[in-house]
Amino acid sequence: MKYISFLIKPASSLCNMRCRYCFYYDVAEHREVSAYGIMEENTMHALIDKALGLGEDAHITFAFQGGEPTMAGLSYFTSFCEYAEKHKTKQNIQYALQTNGTRIDELWCALFKKYNFLIGVSLDGYKEIHDYFRMDPSLKGTFSHVFKTIQLLRQYEIPFNILTVLTSQLSKHPEKLFRFYKQNQLSYVQLIPCLPGLDESENKNSLHPKEFASFYKAFFRLWLAEYKKGNYISITLFDNIIPMFKGIRPQQCGMLGYCTPQFVIESNGDVYPCDFYVLDAYRCGNIKEDSLIKLVKTDAMQKFLKEERRECTECRNCPFVNICHKNCKRLNITYYTKDYCGYKDFLMYAKDEMMMISNSL
């Protein structure tokens, strides 16, 4: 049985917002062409055909990201899903979309419902923080608009999760953030660290390793108290780490210290190995011209897979080396410095409780 995921950027880096920390804007600005426009129909068909060509036993996930993927328009997604459903035989197809939540209306919800989309909504917690970081082109906050989208998704019974960017500023308020999730019944949350630029230049928003540790220690205490009451809140980091104490592989890529081949498809059909590395130097080929096997074997893909990770002196005698291995090579800049590891600091704090939960699974 074959499992494969495609991360598709149907509108390239186009977006209707002006977030203060956008990592994909940084990526796009490091390319010769920053935005490739909306994906054309022949590219869409080539992508779907290649995926279906894996065989009838294939489990295929088409995940849409940006930029803001809804900038491609409702008609694009209607055409994509109709073509995929018409041409599949026995393949299992799942659809997912990550959105800033400002363009979703009832027509979008009808499409999501019809094709069983899983929706990720970008929401940076409570209003003050969200509106500071996530603004529209007129530099107005978008919290109220996004929260109306969440209510609409609930009305249509569309499954969704929350994606929150953990900035330096937000890391100082773990209690307020956790309380916000709990009060609003937001039970599926992924927190991703705010990254410095690709040139590793620091900025006031990016998360530092000591902030990572202090935030997650406090956040884990709050999460654990609810867990012991029987109130489970899915936090992606915890969901992945806890089973690892029992030898179960994490679902999140990079957490074991090595990369696996990904298929990130830009709107012109160019293929890249990772969402963090949609850069000219890592272009593997084009979905219209190259087979999936050829794309995996390209020099660019192999270079990406074999690149060394940053060193930390704490790794040498770390008791968690077998569940870390220096972690994701892009995210780990927010986990450790040359001589301090916030990831280890947090795990030392949480390990006993995590192991107890792991043993009960």
TrEMBL record:
InterPro entries: 4Fe4S-binding_SPASM_dom, Aldolase_TIM, Anaerobic_Cys-type_sulfatase-m, rSAM, rSAM_sf, Sulphatase_maturase_rSAM. It comes from the Bacteria. PROSITE patterns: RADICAL_SAM. Keywords: Iron, Iron-sulfur, Metal-binding, S-adenosyl-L-methionine. Pfam families: Radical_SAM, SPASM. GO terms for molecular function: iron-sulfur cluster binding; metal ion binding; oxidoreductase activity. Its cofactor is [4Fe-4S] cluster. Residues 1-234 form the Radical SAM core domain. The keyword Transmembrane helix does not apply. Belongs to the radical SAM superfamily. Anaerobic sulfatase-maturating enzyme family. This is Radical SAM/SPASM domain-containing protein.
